[in-house]
Amino acid sequence: MLKKIAAAAALAALMAAPAASQAADTTLRISLQLPLKSHLGQNLVLFKEEVEKNSNGAIEVQIYDSAQLYKDKDVPQAVGSGAIEMGVASLTRYVGDIPAVDIFYQPFLFNSEEKVRAATAKGSAIRGPIDEAIMDTGSRVLWWQAYGGAIMLSKGGALNTPADVEGKKVRVFGKTLGEFVEAVGGSPTLISGSEQYLAYQRGTVDIGMTGVSGVKSRSLWEVMDTITVTNHADIEFIVVINEAFWQSLPDDHKAIITAAADMADASVRDAMTGIEAEAYAAAEENGMTIYTPTAEELEAWKAGAAPVLESYREAAGDLGAQLLEAAQAL
Fold first, then answer.
1. How far is CA 202 from CA 183, 198, 260, in A?
2. What are phi and psi of 242, to 5 degrees?
3. d(CA 275, CA 165)
4. Which residues, listed in sequence order, are joined to residue 121 by a DSSP beta bridge?
5. Using CB atoms within 10 A of its CB, is residue 56 exposed (0-12), middle (13-18) or buried (19+)?
6. How far apart are the C-alpha atoms of 204 and 167, rounded to whole Å?
7. What is the biggest distance separating any 2 CA atoms in the chain, rounded to whole angstroms?
8. CA distance 200 to 193
9. CA–CA separation, 95 vs 113, rounded Å?
């Protein structure tokens, strides 16, 4: 009997040995507020596949989508404190610590793909100082995720001019976007991306503001029927990692993660035009009306939003002035 028990124990140990040798040395948990099917979610999947393949399983990446762990607004503190290794957050979530990050939400400042690409390039005169400033929050920026231009959602008709926003409650996802809404006569309400569907469904707000890819990934056509293509701001998300955790990693792991991050950055940026086109097509297929303002109507939007830039100059300090000069030079 003792020999049988010993043999069984030896067999069990032998069977367990390969699993133990394949266990990950490093685990990266990533919090994402969007569904995994969103283009930001799929971009994380690309990163995960690259990291796990090139590390031969020594690094495991776990993605927690749809705000399972943290809402977008909680990610900067969660990652900066080390409560989680990595997270995805809208860049504007750092505006409390770094007001200058809202350079991308200055109305109509980044009004072409060329300008957006130049501004968001790694180490550029705009992205570089922002990445450096975020380090002071306890997080390191690994890569940026393009989310496209900001559009307006409504029910029952398009938003041709600022007059159509006057007195209306508008969902926003950043302080500066709230100032934009106030400047054109509306009442902003800060609502997390994961909560906007219910806000539209329940009538908490009358108008929405988001990226068109979010309309597709969140099926917002079920609760809104019109998209007004203002493209008044450039929406950027960033993927951050806790700096203390990063410094604890071996150099080979850092190299693998950095290479995968650079690939993910380029991939999502290059795909953005197609992603937006597919999202607009899906919106139309699901009954939404797509309205593009005329040149005259856009001028009315720009004129109404003029006070926002002055507010940014006052709040964003020396860094904001530096970024604004760089943006205007593009």
1. 25, 6, 41
2. -60, 130
3. 28
4. none
5. exposed
6. 14
7. 91
8. 12
9. 23
Domain extent listing, the chain: 2-324
Helix or strand (DSSP H, E) at 76 = helix 75-81
Q: Concatenate the DSSP letters of all residues of 286-305 into one string.
A: TT-EEE---HHHHHHHHHHH
Round to the nearest angstrom and report the end-to-end CA distance of the chain: 81
The pairing of beta strand 59-64 with beta strand 26-31: parallel
Q: Residue 304: what residue type?
A: G
Distance from C-alpha of 78 to C-alpha of 86, rounded to nearest angstrom: 9
**Measured distance CA(15)–CA(13) in Å, rounded:** 5
Full DSSP string of 125-171: TTHHHHHHHHGGGTEEEEEEEEEEEEEEEESSS---SGGGTTT-EEE
Q: What is the pLDDT of residues 248-299, one digit of tens each?
A: 999 999 999 999 999 999 999 999 999 999 999 999 999 999 999 999 999 9
**HSE of 185, CA atoms in CB hemisphere, 13 A:** 13
Token pair 């569904």 is found at 35
Number of residues that this document lists for the chain? 330
Whether residue 148 contacts residue 230, with contact meaning beta carbons closer than 8 Å, is answered with: no
The pTM of the whole model exceeds 0.70: yes
| CA angle, residues 274, 280, 281, in degrees to nearest 5 | 90
Query: What is the gyration radius of the CA atoms in the chain, in angstroms?
Result: 22
Write down the CATH number for the domain with range 2-324: 3.40.190.170
